[in-house]
Amino acid sequence: MATQLKNLSDFSHTTVPNGSAYKIAIAVAEWNAEITGSLYHGALKTLLEHGVAEENILSIAVPGTFELTSAADLLLKKHPDLNAVICLGCVIQGETKHFDFICDAVANGITQVSVKHSKPVIFGVLTTNDLQQAIDRAGGKHGNKGDEAAITALKMSELSVTI
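Below the sequence we write its predicted structure tokens.
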């Protein structure tokens, strides 16, 4: 497994842009709140550490991961000055095909919203086989996917204003 021995939230190999000029929204799913709360706090902390002003961060909660797509679309319609939207959620494999349908719909939906609005919409959704894998990626031994999503939002915001 590629992540077995890695902390994925190590950004020492890359330059992270200063976010002081950016407005970024975070949409976070309430389902699996222990995990998504950790993702949210990681993303928020990372944005603040990289210069995004607290008043330039808009945070909203949605019931579950499936609702992240419509939340991102609504955010970009209501706040066209946003530079990026970070979508944070967690879907853990269960006994039914629900996992497959939700993960596929959300990944495709987030991509479609990003293309529709020509703005970065960041996929910060854990899709894990079990709770331990989610814990390991929400501040555990493999870092915090929320941190990674925030860094991605900053890098893509910079890219969108420099192209």
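The longest helix spans residues 98-117.
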